Amino acid sequence: MAVLQMQRITICALKRDRKQLLEYLQRRGVIEITNEISEDEVFHKMDVNVAVSLLEKGKRNAEEAIRILNEMVPVKKSMLDGLNGRSVVSKKEYDEFAEKSEKVSRIVSRIVQIEKQLAESKAELIRMSMQSEMLLPWVNLDVPLNFKGTKKTIAYIGSIPGEWSLEQIYAEISEIEKVTIDIIFSSKTNTNVFILCEKTESERAIEKLREMGFAYQTLQTAKAPKEMEADLKLEEKEVNLDIEALLEELTELSSHRSEIEFFQDYATMRLHKYEVLGQLPQSKSIFVITGYLPNEDCESIETGILEKFEAFVEFESPSENEEVPVKLKNNKFVEPLEGTIESFSLPGKGEIDPTTVTAIFYYVLFGLMLSDAVYGLVMVAGCGFVLLKFGKKMEDGIKKAMKMFFFCGISTTFWGVMFGSYLGDIVDTFSTTFLGKTTSIAPVWFFPVKEPMRMLVFSMLLGIIHLIAGLTMKLYQNLKQKDYSGIVYDVIFWYFLLLGSIFALMGVPTFTNTLGVTFVLPEVVTKTGGILALIGAVGIVLTNGRESKNPFKRFLKGLYALYGITGYLSDILSYSRLLALGLATGVICTVINKMASMTATGILGIIPFLIIVIFGHTLNIAINALGAYVHTTRLQYVEFFGKFYNGGGRSFRPFDVKTKYYKIKEN
Amino acid sequence: MESLGIVFALTGAIMAALVAGVGSAIAVGMAGEAAAGVVTDDPSKFSKVLILQLLPGTQGIYGLLIAFITLTQIGVLGGSSEMSLAKGLLYFAACLPMAIVGYFSAIKQARASLASISLVSKKPDQFGKAMIFPAMVETYAILALLISILSIMGIAPLAI
Question: What is the per-residue pLDDT for A80?
């Protein structure tokens, strides 16, 4: 368990090498670049705004193009494909891409353009369908809609609200003699009419029509509606053809998908490079890079740089008060928990890396909460399969999570065997239902469902061990910080108080009876326990207010610290969740098995039995694994970390290749 | 009157599953609405908000658990269901912590989940912490579950 030792690095190199050197550092990805030297007469920072904005545009376009391709020409992906991580590309391929980038950039713009055209065509289609909908009520009219009449006649084309029959309209305008009326279309709400009358009658006619609520229609077309509709159909066909052609072109272009993805990564990397470049102080012929890097990488970076470039590299240890970025390094067994630590907070100044101890307790507690041998094996098999199949290609984060659940699975299996849980009581249920006699696998230790009190005591005991481990971590941390008084005042006294009270309580019959403890400790032990607890308590009251000068205030603060014992009490009680969650798994298993056995009658009953068992247990494993994950994390964050760990460290963010699809391999 | 024992015992079992289940259903529903909102913005956060949505769902499961243990203990799922009125009432009382605490903690936990979902939508890297806030509320449901289990297990040997 360790927080990696960091070194400060200063690289001074020739300006002409700056891009290659930066690219090299980016591919290595081990240096966090800091921005320390300010501008003066000699050193200036380069203005990279133009390049950055160009690259940003390129990257955005590529993202857009990929989004369009994914939408229009989706590629089938299986669920597990996501585990494959980024593909690896050699440096040579990367260098060669520079020549292709122009071409890909054109493809990208074409794809973006196609999407625009598609959107326009689709809008056109909508407009046309709206138009033909509006034409629909006039389709029986065989003159153009803007027909005004002949030399001697005048035409009124429009609609009257309400449903009218021909007779009704004639009756309404019976005063006008020379008139002909056609009903083009009629519905409940309005009637579309074509009325032709002599010009001489027009004024009277319009007056009458107005009384009826006549309104001119608004579509002014020079063609008859029928023709119009035919035209629209033709146009629609054309637009549809256009769309088809565009889609086809898109499908064709989608063969360049991987190139576009590379283009996006290429732009991302260069963007990042230019952003860093903009921070570097440069003189006429040299430039300077400052940063942090882990101790272990110093040598290889130095030789790597000196081999390729003419440069000057210098290392120095960071000073005491510097805010050095934090990177953790651990062995394979506990490494998966680094993510959990990081999502709480990385170790702050002077704090130790808690990963190892956290990991061991994490696996144990998780296993206890899920505690079923078969569930454990399912987890081990699932995670093991994924790790074997995709292990090499997988991204770090997912790999760590998989490993964590792999180890949790082993622990789950262990506790399942201890507590005799194999898919709950599936063996009993199956043998009773189908074989007619009850066989069962005896637990190695005991059945928690039958002896919940025993399990509760065990849970709390484990809790006490976990908390004491937390205190011990504090001791170790104080030792490292050389805070020797802190060891006695903040750790040893609490040891006295906690362990002393436990031993003292063991002498109280009501307490031992409740817990079901059968053995009796000799009186000397319980008495000594009491005395130790007393010493601890007095010590805490006297010392824990030591920052205050005022003796009265000091005493009060000490008393308040002693009140913290209630915190320990609730912490220990909190571990009762181990029992509760363990029972939850077990009892739900029993419920599922019971339901399954109810459906099973005769030999064919095995089919519904199996369906219910598989479906039910899949659900149960999901729900309870989630519960175990959440509550184990909580026990670590709240109960365990509460004893010694504050965090607050800044995570190490090296200048590296932050791409989405491809990884560049050095050489 | 004597035969009323089993009535109370069964009512207790049903209450545990019913009330805690209703609470969890409301709670998961509330959290689900918020989670769906986050996914509209950013589908990649689905798994994170799903976990936060599911957190207040456990109370319903605990309720089911208590109901089931009670049913087996009182002989409804096979065995003799004879019991005194006093025992029936004891079972009823034993189921109450899970029913009542389950209901209220589920809904309060959903509120914490809602807040955590909005936290994750803004700062996805703070998921670990966001998960802890709802889990804090669940502690009390677990304590209630514990007392209910211990009481139910303890009733059978009593000679009343």
Answer: 67
